[in-house]
Amino acid sequence: MTEKTPRLRAALEAVPTYKPGKPAAADGPVAYKLSSNENPYPPLPGVLESAVAAAGSFNRYPDMACTGLMAELAEHFGVPLTHLATGTGSVGVAQQLVQATAGPGDEVVYAWRSFEAYPIITQVSGATPVQVPLTEGDVHDLDAMLAAITDRTRLIFVCNPNNPTGTVVRRAELEAFLDRVPSDVLVVLDEAYREFIRDEAVPDGIDLYRDRPNVCVLRTFSKAYGLAGLRVGFAVAHEPVAAALRKTAVPFGVSQVAQDAAVASLRSEKALGERVDALVAERTRVAAALAGQGWTVPESQANFVWLRLGELALDFAAACERAGVVVRPFPGEGVRVTIGETEANDLFLRAAEEFRKEL
């Protein structure tokens, strides 16, 4: 008798597996991890103390409504409490959005290449991903995305700045795009890297959402705030969407440690600004050095830079690893490099220079 195994959804066979950034080797020559867009700084002032205090009661469930954090976010961003929802990082909230809007027969539109979780969360929901290629400059092609909308489109992701290219969509073109999207299609402005933007022509998504009921903004504490290991993100959206997000959230998904750390982070705005400014200065230095070496580097408004290397991506990543830094290759396309400590950035730049000389 043939032993049978549990029957799983056949659709899962086509779902790609999320690939995290490769960690630095614990016992090898690699010293720095520049593969996951993590913040190299320790927690902001007061954050560790808040987290440790909360950890003393983790035998209890966290506040499922995230009451303290929601109140802090409402005040910080000037939005109603009913327009907020939290989740396990902005990617967790993104998955809730897909679950709330799209199922079998529905379509989710996004640029490609963009955040690699989009096709995963779309296909897990049973919906159909519609990938719209970036322009030659690695920017969202908003006209092509508009043309991709059908009567089956339920949700559109606009990653701004875009991961992994770091490029941005500016106000005039984004507003024109939003004005042309059907009002019953939800547009999600994924702003995980918002704090690193220095281009004044890039709008704050929260400003755009206020008078547009079909716009939702995603933010996270993982990047600029440096809470990647605690998994806390949030959405700002009009009440029907925010209420749906609260329905699709995993119960007790955001730990009390994460909630209290996020509140303390919001209250440490001055220190946050100083750290982000330092990372932006390093981003400028790294991009200028790469351009000086002869590389073509799209202007990044995030905490990473992108090199479109095509078939050389894996070779380049291997060369960086030998030099002491781990970067994030996308085979056949390019390499994303997080802006880290000055020492790490210097190691990367030396590796890039040596690789360039051998081409």
From TrEMBL:
Molecular functions (GO terms): aromatic-amino-acid transaminase activity; histidinol-phosphate transaminase activity; pyridoxal phosphate binding
Catalytic activity: an aromatic L-alpha-amino acid + 2-oxoglutarate = an aromatic oxo-acid + L-glutamate
Transferase is among the record's keywords: yes
Residues modified as N6-(pyridoxal phosphate)lysine: K223
Cofactor requirements of the protein: pyridoxal 5'-phosphate
One example of a Gene Ontology biological process annotation: L-histidine biosynthetic process
Taxonomy, superkingdom: Bacteria
Family of this protein: Belongs to the class-II pyridoxal-phosphate-dependent aminotransferase family.
Official protein name in the record: Aromatic amino acid aminotransferase
Native organism: Streptomyces olivoverticillatus
Species lineage: Bacteria, Bacillati, Actinomycetota, Actinomycetes, Kitasatosporales
